[in-house]
TrEMBL record:
This is Molybdopterin-dependent oxidoreductase. CDD domains: MopB_CT_DMSOR-BSOR-TMAOR, MopB_DMSOR-BSOR-TMAOR. Residues 44-498 form the Molybdopterin oxidoreductase domain. InterPro entries: Asp_de-COase-like_dom_sf, CT_DMSOR/BSOR/TMAOR, MoPterin_dinucl-bd_dom, Mopterin_OxRdtase, Prok_Mopterin_Oxidored. Its cofactor is Mo-bis(molybdopterin guanine dinucleotide). It comes from Saccharopolyspora mangrovi. Residues 611-728 form the Molybdopterin dinucleotide-binding domain.
């Protein structure tokens, strides 16, 4: 099981061959081939390594990211690390340790890097934690105020079978991405979205994608493409609301019985509260979409059973709360929330699990314990925390003080992929005394650490796994021995537990296999108490997979609330859909007031560049995972990440297909291989995230490999969420006329063998 599917392969005990997707997957994806081709890549970390300056001079960030590493024995590495952990906890306490590990490291439930690390640090006394995530952190802060839990919204999403039967018009703001539907947290066994979309179209559903990228959708959807100016979707949605109101198309009965605050919102739409009607003519100037198109779209939405889908990408931008809030508001104005095939969803096409029926329970997982440390940060504020300890920031109605972190411990995840303004992040990573990383590969995060411990890949360890909301639960026996001297995270923490005399608080004296059987058996008993029977552990371990029952294959999001809003209140302060939120309004945030509004992106004012950069998810890998794999490598041009541009913009710059270009703004620059295509809106350049950051040694703001996060701004979506704004930036593109600098990140850094 991987985050992008289940694989089948032959093994000689050391490596895999004949890799294919699982025989039960109707639509396996090519990125599965990154796994075997990466396992023994030269960039694989073979031995424990300590940054030379840290080893010689002791803790401190001077030289981090530039110095060679000294390869040492496991005993020496673990002795050094345990001593450093003692020092930091004795000197600073738990507020001096940041437990990073932003998920995604393993599809398995036991060897989940974040769970392993957090459990271990909790045994030491706790750690500074992060809340939210980069995927939908802005929505995660907003939606509980507006319509309830984000987790429930996605897990309870109207299933694709219901959409096929009932939806007439499927409007997707931000695309309905084929590539994002290939992956899901924890994995996806059956890639079914393509066939579901095709069957819905054949049944008469009409798909409309509102995005600057025409092919960010399944070809089978036959989508109608509307391409607004990036960052202007909130203006377009407000104009649709204006038409629904002006033409009497809003469902006033539903708004009266199921929502609060519509009167305040519609006063703003009409312009009576601020003097500016949000008319189609007004929106057309901002969005560059014709007035007629806006009016026609609003009328079609009101005349059809309409599903309004807002992709996760829509909230990864400046003021990203607004288009998500407006998606809910438009669905409420149509009065179709809770109807089969109608209403609102946040995430179709953003992850493979959205649209699957909810399971009766989640599969077993490794318990993290309780974190006694009270300090935390919004996940996207790590650079701010390291650079400005003691500063106070607003966050979702509270004020947070950044702690003084002396040690960062990262297991799984790659902040030099998912964070923004990487030159700034690199400066921030100089601040702690010590950075510890468990990694499989020499990513930029590993290169900017002090203690680097080689970890096993998923195929090298025993585990079990099921994706989020995926009903298929798989045993995951190790397929090969570990590469080099790699160890499981569990084994590493077990060895540290002994040195730190934690009295088996972490391991409880169990081996990996004993933990798997223990967790499974407890889970099996819980299921049995609810009337569901699954095999015993031995039978499960020897099976291909088992299936977790689902509650309702024909589930409809918010159906119970629609039918009985009194006894099925939403988890919002009022129990209703909050078009106006009194609570958000009470926070007094100018960048996120009490109802959805149009707020011009700050980037439009701050960066004097003509092209809109869209930095979306890649087709050839998951985020930055296995960027050295065969599928990922095949997608590059001249060894660099491809950038796509409209022919009109390429001609204006005398650029040709296949050129190496430099993309730049005031924050930084990167090289990319150019693809010219009319699938990109004029005025837009698109480059996927995830190329391993490969900075020029003399200029960390210049990435030779094509990581767009040297260009994106490290600033929050708003004071409410403090979420990332990674999706958009303004840039210029020009021909790179000098010799192509070498790519170095796919090779190890300089290593000195000092094992005894």
């Amino acid at each position: 099981m991987t985050h992008f599917g289940v694989l089948e392969a032959k093994s000689d005990g050391k490596s895999l061959s004949a890799v294919t997707g699982w025989h039960g997957d109707p639509d396996p994806r090519q990125i599965i081939h990154n796994v075997a081709s990466s396992q023994h890549h030269p960039a694989r970390i073979k031995l424990p390594a300590i940054r030379q300056g840290w080893l010689q001079r002791g803790p401190g960030g001077s030289g981090r990211g530039d110095e060679p590493f000294v390869e040492v024995s496991w005993d020496e590495a673990l002795d050094l690390l345990s001593a450093e952990l003692r020092r930091v906890y004795d000197t600073h306490g738990s507020s001096g340790v940041y437990g990073g590990s932003y998920g995604w490291s393993s599809a398995g439930r036991f060897h989940h890097g974040q769970s392993q690390l957090h459990r271990f640090l909790n045994c030491l006394g706790g750690y500074v934690s992060a809340v939210g995530d980069y995927s939908y952190g802005t929505s995660g802060a907003l939606l509980p105020h507006v319509i309830g839990s984000v987790t429930e919204i996605m897990a309870d999403a109207t299933t694709w079978s219901v959409i096929r039967e009932h939806t007439e018009l499927f409007i997707s703001f931000g695309g309905l991405s084929e590539k994002n539907s290939a992956v899901g947290p924890g994995g996806i066994a059956r890639h079914s979205t393509r066939s579901e979309v095709e069957r819905a179209r054949e049944a008469g559903c009409h798909f409309v994608d509102i995005t600057p990228i025409r092919d960010d959708a399944f070809a089978e959807s036959g989508t109608e493409w509307i391409a607004p100016r990036p960052g202007s979707d909130a203006a377009l949605m407000l104009a649709i609301a204006y038409v629904l109101d002006a033409e009497g198309l809003a469902d006033l009965d539903f708004l009266e019985t199921h929502t609060v605050g519509y009167d305040r919102f519609i006063a703003y739409v009409r312009g009576s509260s601020d003097g500016q009607p949000k008319s189609p003519e007004w929106a057309s100037e901002i969005t560059e979409i014709s007035t007629d198109t806006i009016v026609a779209l609003a009328r079609r939405m009101a005349g059809s059973r309409t599903m309004i889908n807002v992709s996760w990408s829509m909230q990864r931008q400046d003021h990203g709360e607004q288009p998500v809030w407006l998606g809910v508001t438009l669905a409420a104005m149509l009065g179709q929330i809770g109807l089969p095939g109608g209403g609102f969803q946040h995430g179709y096409g953003s992850s493979a699990d959205v649209g699957l029926a909810k399971r009766v329970t989640s599969p077993p997982r490794f318990p993290q314990g309780t974190n006694p440390e009270k300090s935390y940060i919004p996940v996207a504020r790590i650079a701010d925390m390291l650079l400005h300890p003691g500063d106070v920031i607003p966050f979702n109605g509270r004020e947070l003080t950044f702690p003084q972190v002396d040690l960062v411990y990262w297991v799984g995840g790659n902040p030099f992929h998912h964070h923004q303004d990487l030159a700034r992040l690199r400066r921030a990573f100089q601040r702690p005394s010590t950075i510890v990383v468990h990694e499989q590969f020499w990513t930029s995060t590993a290169r900017n650490a002090d203690i680097v411990l080689p970890a096993t890949m998923t195929i090298e360890r025993d585990d079990f796994g099921a994706g989020r909301n995926d009903p298929l639960f798989f045993p995951m026996p190790a397929l090969t021995e570990p590469a080099g001297e790699a160890r499981d995270d569990y084994a590493i923490f077990g060895a540290l537990e002994e040195r730190l005399e934690l009295n088996q608080a972490f391991t409880e004296g169990r081996t990996v296999k004993q933990w798997l059987e223990h967790l499974y058996s407890e889970w099996r008993e819980r299921l049995a108490s609810r009337g569901h029977t699954v095999p015993n552990f031995e039978d499960f371990w020897n099976s291909d997979h088992i299936e977790i029952p689902v509650l309702d294959p024909g589930q409809v999001l918010h159906a119970d609330y629609r039918n009985d809003p009194v006894n099925h209140r939403l988890r919002t302060p009022s129990g209703r859909i909050e078009i106006y939120s009194e609570k958000i309004d009470s926070f007094g945030y100018e960048d996120c007031p009490g109802h959805p509004v149009w707020l011009e992106p700050r980037e439009w004012r701050d960066q004097p560049y003509p092209l809109h950069l869209i930095s979306n998810q890649p087709k050839t890998r998951l985020h930055s995972q296995l960027d050295v794999g065969a599928t990922s490598k095949q997608g590059k041009l001249h060894g660099r990440e491809p950038a796509r541009m409209n022919p009109v913009d390429a001609a204006a710059r005398e650029l040709r297909n296949g050129d190496v270009v430099r993309i730049r703004n005031d924050r930084g620059s990167c090289l990319a291989g150019l693809i010219i295509t009319d699938a990109i809106r004029p005025g837009v350049v698109q480059i996927s995230t995830g190329a391993w950051y490969d900075p020029d040694p003399s200029d960390p703001s210049f990435c030779r490999h094509g990581n767009p996060n040297v260009l994106t701004a490290d600033r929050p979506s708003s004071s409410l969420s403090q979420g990332t704004t990674a999706q958009h930036a303004l840039v210029e593109v020009e021909l790179w006329e000098r010799a192509h600098p070498p790519i170095t990140v796919d090779k190890p850094p300089k290593l000195i063998d000092n094992r005894t």
